Amino acid sequence: MSAVTTEIVATWMARQVQTKGALHQDDAVEVILREFGDEFVYDNDNGNLAIARPVLRAFRNLTNGSIVWDREHRMWRPREPGDAPGRQQ
């Protein structure tokens, strides 16, 4: 069995957005912990599980601006024509 890498987790995240139209942060953290391992999540300052920063960096590099973070809904989704520049909407 091959070792799981941050790139594998980031690729999973991108595929979820592409196939389902969105990826909610809470769902992503839960699946990443269960399917890929605890090395890809951490406890943030609020005491909640969050996606590890190296995974998020790999995700940003992989998606190259085609996926944005929707802060209001706490999810990633494909960029839409009316979106402002940048990754956060």
Structural class: alpha+beta
Q: How many beta strands in the DSSP annotation? A: 5
Mean of pLDDT = 92
Shape: globular
**N- and C-termini, Cα separation:** 38 Å
Helix content: 40-55%
Strand content: 15-25%
Along the chain, the helix and strand elements come as HEHEEHEE
C-alpha Rg (nearest Å): 13 Å
| Widest sheet: strand ordering | 1-5-4
Describe the largest sheet: 3 strands, antiparallel
The low-pLDDT segments are none
Instruction: Give me the number of helical elements.
Output: 3
Number of discrete domains: 1
Main traits of this protein?
single chain, 3 helices, 89 residues, three-stranded antiparallel sheet, globular, two-stranded antiparallel ribbon
Describe this structure in words.
- The protein is of the alpha+beta class.
- It has one domain (6-78).
- 43% of the residues lie in helices and 18% in strands.
- The protein is built from three helices and five strands.
- It has helices spanning 6-20, 25-36, 53-63; strands spanning 23-24, 41-43, 49-51, 67-70, 75-78.
- Strand 4 and strand 5 (75-78) form a beta hairpin.
Short description:
The chain has 89 residues and is α+β, with helices and mostly antiparallel strands.
Please outline the helices and strands.
Blueprint: H1 6-20, E1 23-24, H2 25-36, E2 41-43, E3 49-51, H3 53-63, E4 67-70, E5 75-78
